[in-house]
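Sequence only, no structure available. Ideas?
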Amino acid sequence: MNREQLGRLLQHHGAMMVLGMLVVVGTLGFDSFATPDNAASIVVSSSFLAVVAIGTTFVIISGGIDLSVGSLFVLGGVLAAFGSQYGFAVALLLPLAVCGLVGLVQGLIIARTGLAPFIVTLAGLLGVRGMMLTISNEGATTYLVKNPAFAALGQGEILGLTYPVYLTIALALAAMVLLQRTGFGQNVYAIGGNEQAAALMGVPVARTKIYVYLMSGLLAGLAGALNAARLSSGVTILGIGMELDAIAAVVIGGTLLTGGAGGVTGTVAGVLLLGVIQSLINQVGNLTSSIQQVVSGAFLALVVVAQRLLSKAQR
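Reply:
I predicted one. C-alpha cells follow.
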C-alpha cells in the first residue's frame, strides 16, 4: 500500500477506526460501558444529531456551510409540539414545511446572488432563533405534545431502540444511495470539487445548491420534531449550538471542509464517535459535560490538521 492509498484509507475510514479503538478502551476500562443499555443510550441520543448531520454532509461536500441547522432543530421541535394539538399530521408536517422553506430561501439566496453561505446561514440562524423566541414568548412558553400517536413516534421501541433510530438508519441508507449512485450526488461532488469546472461541464450548479440547502432545512426540522416527540415537549434550549456538533461530526467523519470529498458513512461514524466520547466521560464520573466539548474540539482540530497533511501527501 503506497502513501496515496494509505491517505485515502485514513480519510475515508479513520473515524471508524478511532471509534472501534475507543469502544475497545471503554469495554476494557469500564464494566458498565459495554452493556446493552449503555449502547442503546448512545445510539438513541446520537440519532437526532445524525439526522441533522446527514443534511450537513451534503452541504459541506458541495463546498458550503449551514449554520442555521441548530436553530432550525429547535424551531422544528417547538412547531411540532405546538402543532400536536391539531393532530399527528400537523405536528409532523408543520416543522417540515417551515424549516424546509427556510432552507429553500437560503439556497435561493446563495445560488442566485453568490453570497457566501456563511453569511446567509448566519443570518438564517439569527432569524430562525428570533422566530422561535417569538412563538415561545421569549422561551417562557413550553408547548407540550398533546397527540399520543405523535409522542409514540419518538418514544415507541423495537428491540430496545426507539423509532427515530430506525428512521435515522433508513435516512442514512437513502442518503448514501443518493450521494453515491445518482446524478444529483455526482453533481454535489463536482460543485464542491470545482464549481467553475462543474458549470462548464453543464452541471446545474444553482439548482443543486438550492436542493442541498432545502434538504438540510428539512432534515433539521425533522430531527427537531422527532426530539419533541421523544421529550413530549418543544424545549427551547435543546439544540442551541447543534450546528457546531453537526459540522464537527461531518468533518471528523472525513468530509473535507473545502468540499468535493466525503460521505454519509463517515458522518455516521463521526456522530457515534462524539456519542462514545460523551459516554466515556460520563463513565469517569467526576468530569463535567463541558469536558466533552474540550475533547471534541481538540479531536476536530487534530482531524483538520491530519486532513491537510494527507492532502499534501497525496499530491
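The CA atoms of residues 68 and 125 lie 4 Å apart.
Hope that gets you unstuck.
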